């Protein structure tokens, strides 16, 4: 009898162990050793990341420059965009030397062109993937809140009809709209905590239906808008935390970079959050730290067509790739 009981108990333990292993294999995990950098090389403060249709990953970093007030406006002489192969992590090329003063957000449009924001120059710069400047929005070095000026813009998003939306930003609390050729169309947003108001619109994403998702960073929420800018919903919870970045993973599936509150003393927190189309948390990955899969300040993120997520850690000066098990 005792032998049979032991056998049954062993079977139950085995079954439970299998279930536990199955659970542990679900979700996202970091890809160790990605990317590959030359010996002794580290990135600067990694502020933005984008992926194009050729599976190239563009990491927008500050090449040794640090944020200090007043923000420096002289161009960084070193390359500020490192381009990696999304599969292997191999460094393909570097671009952006002598263009930017304080890199922030970067996005890739449907044609593969890059749109980068510079918070010191108050500009949005459109570039080809070889580094050629194609268009500039905003007046260099002049802050403002009209159709010709930004005030520390943070990121660019693209609607299906080619409309360009700029999250603007650290000083302005608005979403500015432009035609594909750079003509100012209008704007929405005011300072505050109510629907349609912002306290640092830090990142932006637009889905196939035209809905606009804004990481309203210092209000600790993501706001959802109609294509015309009407508030539809707000996502906020302790698990979502403080959204610094947002990217679309698929229909009704999103990735959020929780940069944390960044307190003067602990506890610190940061992480990658997966949510559904109603803002309900499906999964939270990582925590504050320096190890693989951890973050000191998850700042922005991007996804590729295979569902991988690339997260830049601005304080940790690196980019990490996450894939589903």
- β-sheet strand percentage: 35-45%
Quick one: biggest sheet?
Answer: 4 strands, antiparallel
Average pLDDT: 92
CATH architecture: 6 Propeller
Q: In angstroms, what is the radius of gyration? A: 21 Å
- Apparent shape: globular
Low-confidence stretches: 1-25
Classification by helices and strands: mainly beta
- Based on DSSP secondary structure assignment, what is the total number of beta strands? 26
- Give the count of structural domains: 1
Ends: how far apart? Answer: 42 Å
Commentary on this structure:
- The protein has a single domain (45-324), classed as TolB, C-terminal domain (Neuraminidase).
- It is mainly beta.
- It is globular and about 45 Å long.
- Strands 1-26-25-24 form a four-stranded antiparallel sheet, with no helix packed on it.
- The chain has one helix at 2-24, and strands at 28-30, 46-51, 56-61, 81-85, 91-95, 103-108, 114-118, 123-127, 133-137, 153-158, 164-168, 174-178, 184-188, 190-191, 197-198, 201-206, 212-216, 221-225, 231-235, 243-250, 253-258, 271-276, 281-285, 298-303, 309-313, 318-324.
Tell me briefly what this model is.
With 325 residues, the protein is mainly beta.
SSE diagram, text form:
Elements: H1 2-24, E1 28-30, E2 46-51, E3 56-61, E4 81-85, E5 91-95, E6 103-108, E7 114-118, E8 123-127, E9 133-137, E10 153-158, E11 164-168, E12 174-178, E13 184-188, E14 190-191, E15 197-198, E16 201-206, E17 212-216, E18 221-225, E19 231-235, E20 243-250, E21 253-258, E22 271-276, E23 281-285, E24 298-303, E25 309-313, E26 318-324
Parallel strand pairs: 14-15
Antiparallel strand pairs: 1-26, 2-3, 3-4, 4-5, 6-7, 7-8, 8-9, 10-11, 11-12, 12-13, 16-17, 17-18, 18-19, 20-21, 21-22, 22-23, 24-25, 25-26
